[in-house]
């Protein structure tokens, strides 16, 4: 426990962290990777290059300082990050390295303003925060290992099938190399895939949502090809599309993630997706049909056109059921799309459309897609009076802020 004086000192740094947080976290990563380049085998290089990880960490440090006297308040954030850490293989021995370089970065950026008193207080606070993460992650490691079909670290999976779903999305069906059982998962969760790409000094790890229902003898991920290899996001997705073939072995960590479907509720369910954001939504849709056959579901997907619309046949098959509705939005439909009535609405999903077509007052909403899409959905739902507890969303990548 922290004493009151330490808490007051940490709280006094909140305005400074609000102003200089990203500068501090940027410097932190520079220092840490300079001294420990081996950690680049764990961290997402694309998120580093694009500044997303720095921004996310700054937000976490700011929240920790704000709630240093009530860390329970940020437990949901801790759990979300802990899921990612477990899937990446972050271990207790990594935390002292992070703490050391975070303090060095604070001192480096703030200079004389970072007095010994402030640095010592943050050292104490960091140890308390690190212990909280380590404790939560220890439970997650135990659960991942001890569950039926579970495992620790990365396990070999054979690419049993590789299926082109659209011009930009390909599915990979993964079966365990050892032919033993595989862990179940909750719809909405993801796998971490570790890749060694020829010519790359460090390994690359990426998370991909599971795009099928649990209970199969395989996992399925559906990966969007990110345009252009100069784009750091594109290196891994292009490698999966072009360099990984049926029969190849991928290193996979056990399913993780806290964006999950609540099957304890029987409220109407609205699943909103943009682009490749449909992957966790498909898993949720299939699961509800399997285990909650009477639950009303509305599946709403937005894409440019049919050329990039993946897995549509699977949704259409389920939409034939009485309690499942499906709507497709294309913002750039082709002439063939128009001639063959391949979509329901031209344009974007709007607040007015949702108000007219969806039972707003009762439903639980889950959405995933590009950040602009998610900001629009979040804003529309809140303007329609949907309470926060019925709004659920997933970011691809570090946690962001939909209120910006």
Main pleated sheet: 6 strands, antiparallel
**CATH superfamily of the largest domain, please?**
Globins
CATH class placement of the largest domain: Mainly Alpha
The number of domains: 3
Q: How far apart are the termini?
A: 34 Å
Q: What integer value in Å does the Rg equal?
A: 22 Å
CATH topology description of the largest domain: Globin-like
Secondary structure: helix percent: 40-55%
Pairing-aware structural class of the strands and helices?
A: alpha/beta
The mean pLDDT is 92
Strand order of the largest sheet: 4-3-6-1-2-5
Kindly report the oligomeric state of this protein. single chain
**Extended strand count:** 12
Share in β-strands: 15-25%
Which of globular, elongated, flat, extended, rod-shaped describes the shape? Answer: globular
Low-confidence stretches: none
Per CATH, the architecture of the largest domain is: Orthogonal Bundle
The topology string of helices and strands comes to HHHHHHHEEEEEHEEHEHEHEHEHE
Task: Enumerate how many helices there are, as a single number.
Answer: 13
Site (Involved in heme-bound ligand stabilization and O-O bond activation): 29
Region (Reductase): 149-404
Active site: 95 (charge relay system), 137 (charge relay system)
Catalytic activity: 2 nitric oxide + NADH + 2 O2 = 2 nitrate + NAD(+) + H(+); 2 nitric oxide + NADPH + 2 O2 = 2 nitrate + NADP(+) + H(+)
Describe this structure in words.
The protein has 404 residues and is α/β, with parallel strands linked by helices. It has three domains: 4-146, Orthogonal Bundle (Globin-like); 154-253, Translation factors (Elongation Factor Tu (Ef-tu), domain 3, Beta Barrel); 269-394, Rossmann fold, CATH 3.40.50.80. Helices cover 43% and strands 18% of the residues. Helix 2 (14-35) packs across helix 4 (52-66) and helix 6 (94-110) packs antiparallel against helix 7 (116-146). The radius of gyration is 22 Å and the shape is globular. The two termini are 34 Å apart. The model has no long low-confidence stretch (mean pLDDT 92).
